[in-house]
Amino acid sequence: MTERTDGNGIVVGVDGSEASKAALRWAAEQATVRHTDLVAVHAWEPAASGHAPYAPVPAGPTVAQEHEQAAQVLAATVREALGPRTGDAVLRVVVEGPPARVLLQQARGALLLALGRKAHGNFGMPSVGPVGRECLRHATVPVVTVPVADRSQEPAKPVNPPSLAGSRAC
The whole model's pTM is what? Predict the structure, then answer.
């Protein structure tokens, strides 16, 4: 569960947030339509990585335990977003490292990289976090940012196309 196999699937960053669940659902639909693989990637960093090398190691989970927690976050997010019967339909990848770097590495050769984002940021502009900005700057594949559905708004109503019964084709 640490390395993605070479291929041209759709890679999606998963961190357990509602935004990443929205990106995962969107990416799953795209993978189905395009008949390609869906690769869900969760990057994690050890909790002790922010300490100076001479600082005493705090009591806490081991690296192996943190890796297992990361795998559980990924599995739970996939299950919540796509349902319990995903089986082998989603390749789950857990990698230790900075999220932007991991996502960019995993997305090499992919059809695209999908990331979640909040529906709106300041002044009604799309809200892309630091990982998303880094991926947008350095990606070698198209990057799609998928917004979280705004639950405060009414659902969009379908637009009916005008009737073509009375028109003539030229």
Answer: 0.77
